Amino acid sequence: MNSPIILIGPMGAGKSSIGKRLARRLSLPYRDTDQLVEERTGVPITTIFELEGEKGFRQRENKVLAECSSAPAAVVATGGGIVILEENQKLLSANKHVVYLKASVNSQFQRTRNDKKRPLLQAEDPLLRLQQLADQRNPIYQRLANITINTDQQSMMSSAEEIIQELGLH
Ligand code: S3P
User: Fold this and answer.
1) Ligand 1: which of 11, 37, 115 to mutate, judged by most atoms within 8 Å of the beta carbon?
2) Exposed/middle/buried for 10, CB within 10 Å: 0-12, 13-18, 19+?
3) pTM for the complete prediction?
């Protein structure tokens, strides 16, 4: 395989956990765009949002995605909002292994309810926020993905195995 496997989908869909398992299973390096943005900036995402707003974060995220999508085989977990910028949509459309990890808003809520590190969920009504983001972004994830995996009813390990089957990598 000579192109990365890129995991897209909303917050709390399991992109990082499934991505790490998948990378281990396929003996590929694991990359995480949120983590790379934080490493390069030297501060947490919450601080980037405070100082530069979402716009600044999206620009930093775009640079990291451009690097990751042109690098050879790796598993790349992305942030939930990476699909918003048109430049990123182009980068993702050009890739053959884009996997949409799908989750219901209720699962997302259960998995993120105690989270303090996601600026977009520090809202008065995080469930409503998740629903609004899902309405806006789910059609984009669906359009950009080569395969879709529903993560609601299965373990992280089974999701990783399903990705391997669906991509024909077994
Ligand atoms: C975001 C999702 C987060 C992170 C940032 C913004 C979003 O990543 O990039 O807080 O816009 O949905 P995860 O999807 O890994 O939580």
Assistant:
1) 11
2) buried
3) 0.97
